Amino acid sequence: MRQGFLRNSRYSPGNMDRESLETLFVGHHDIMDDVLSRVITSIGNSEKHYVLLIGPRGSGKTHLLTLAYRRLMDQFNATNIRDSVVVALLKEEEWGVASYLDLIVRILSALADQEPVLNAEISEIYDKFSKDPGDAETFAVELLRQYTRGKTLLLFCENLVDLFAGLDEEGQQRWRSTIQEDGNWTIVASTPALFAGVTLQDNPFYGFFTIRMLEKIDLDTGLELLVKKAVHENKPELATFLRTPIGRARFRAIHHLAGGNYRAYVVLFAFLDQESLMDLIKPFMDMVDDLTPYYQGRMRQLPPTQRKIVEFLCLKSKPAIIKDISTSCLMSHQTAAKQIGELETIGFINRIRSGRNTFCELSEPLMRICIEVKDNRAQHFRLFVEFLRHWFSTRELEKQRAAFQHNDCTADLDRIHVEEAIRCSLLDGHEPFIDAFHAEAKRCRDSDDYRGLVTIKEILVQNSGSTEDHLHHIRTCFAEGQFEEALAAIDQAIALDDKNPGYFRTRVNVLCQLEQFEEALAAIDQAIALDDKNPGHFFTRAGILLQLEQFEEALSDAEHLIKIEPAHTLAHYARGYALIKLGRPEDAIAALDELLATDDFRSLLVAASWVRRIGYYTPARRYIERATELHPDNKELWIERTRLHIDEGNFDAAAQSAAKVEALPDSLLLGRLFAAQAAAATGPLETALDRLGTILERKDFENDARHFEATVGILAISVRNFGPRYLPQGLTKLWDLLKNLLDESVIGRILTDFLNECIKDGFAGSLADWEMALESLSSSLADLRSCHIPITMLKVAVRYTKTGDERHLLSVPLEQRQLLEDILPSAGDERGSQT
């Protein structure tokens, strides 16, 4: 049994310990599960399975096969299966198989690793061979049958193509016959590529194996491998870094060079600890020395025609079409196409179809090593130049070049490669480093990782300085709610380019989010100074002025905008709002009527709300009817329509539109609250609350302020129409509805808002009735601590309104007294003498 004694191995994973094999196994779990399932099924049934793993060198075949062997051996030893199977694990490279007899002897030797008693009988094979080779083969085959009789013979072998080459066609036929006659063989094999011995119909093993292709490792799987390797090598900081957006972006350089090859990721792992150029050169050149024999060995396996094509692609930095390949390699188009097809099959080349052309490139960029390292005419190592472009931005390389100018001791090798990397970037206008970070930024956006996106955009801003990257960074901070960071990014962008009005416009948006409206006004003025033809700047300025309650100036900006662009919908919208605030409602309505000719649904709805609130119901209906033409089933439309009917006292129409609101998605409770408002205008409050049913939920009141507002509206409408007559019973019932669903603070908040509505309406009804109602409420809601303060304030407000005696105000704490003083009419109000 092969023993694992290494924790890491680039070329011999078969020598790795079980724990390391498990830790570093990635990407082929489905194939592993299939192999193990087929083997276990073969042992328990007469139907046997034969699996052939196909994958280029370095794709993880040996790792998978070795780990499958270890897992199965552990399972066999832990169960009674062990008595039903014998396992032969051949060497990774069985160089000595040149005949069928050789193969049988190698299998017996592998079995002897577990049963040393076999060694004496294996020696007898050699004695017999010296006398009669035929007799030796018969004896060897019979020895194998005798040892495996009644059991499944499980054979693990690698590089099956080499075994077949050693067996030749006659040996393959004899092996196939033995397997068929014995009926107890199960095989798990691997090979770099499909070959004639298993693909041609006239060969003995045609259709014999179940083929499993080991696909190249994708980016996420490659990253998973290196994260696991970092943990395995006790580098937790590196593992954590690789999981960050910046670490992933850096890893993309590794992924580009590795080309999906498992072994290449492991080799390139060393670079992830390196940051500076000086730290990169030695490990890169060590890697070149390390991999050169490996890739040269792979090149030597190719026939000359294919070798020529691979050499051409090694010297090309971009994919090439077949026509260019055939011309440069001095071969016909048909020959080149045929050889390229075979190279694709064995994993040397990728073909990319684009329109009518087919482009070809190396499947493994590191393959260039075998050509470049022997090119004595080259002044620089092209693969290292490519790596530098993926690992550093052009800006970083330019800084390094500047440092070279002040350091005469720097090796020429460093200087030459940095200058060539910069020259290539300037020549093709392409920055692989920036592309990698853009790709990672897209991944962050797609996965809603805005925090990671902010980090990536910071790197892009530092290294590319492009307007688009600055704006993306700012927008990302904005989306993440990191407004201070967004503001700092904008200031940095403006420092680099103070002539870009877009930067100032974006700065305005962030400042408005921070409610820094004075600074926002200054910023939009700078944007207008740079571009006074942009109507949007003036609308933004008008909006800021409205926030600052500078209504005259806002009106001026809106009218200026209308002169520039008469059809600018938002200009009329802003003008109408400014006129409302300036106390010119007729002019405001004339301005807002301009919206009727537009399709601006949202503005129409807001305009309806504005004029409704100041008591102009006829224009409000006009705007609502126009909005209905645009979006007749919009929920917000029906909410505003219901509010209008209630405010104008049309309670039958309000009940009908409330039913419509109730029927729309996610507005059941709001519709019923509106229905209760309509009912509260015509009957007892307690009866009106029956409209709510039992559908109240905590989330409704916690997540939607409109539910609070509508609930307060039920109480206010009842009081406006009937005074406080129905208030005690109604509030008690409301609490009965809420108490099993919500904490008592909800009823306190409702009463607090109700207090404001009552004072604003001037305490409709008799103040004596109010006093009696509040005394009743004090008693019925005595257990609700959250209600004590609003009820006390209501009592004080009623007494003050009744007598005008400020001593009543002095009976409550300062904070409550200040609130009342802000909303109560003065002592000279005519209600002050009401009895």
Could you walk me through the main structural features you see in this protein, from its secondary elements to its overall organization?
The protein is mostly helical and 835 residues long. Helices cover 66% and strands 5% of the residues. The strands form 2 sheets. A 5-stranded parallel sheet has the order 2-3-4-1-5, sandwiched between helices. Strands 6-8-7 form a 3-stranded antiparallel sheet. Helix 5 (118-131) runs antiparallel to helix 6 and helix 18 crosses helix 20. The longest helix has 24 residues, at 277-300. Mean pLDDT is 84; it is low at 827-835.
Structural Rg: 41 Å
Strand content: under 5%
The average pLDDT value, as a whole number, equals: 84
Total DSSP helices: 43
Q: Structural class of the secondary elements?
A: mainly alpha
**How is the largest sheet built, in terms of strand order?**
2-3-4-1-5
Amount of helix:
55-70%
| Low-pLDDT ranges | 827-835
The geometry reads as: elongated
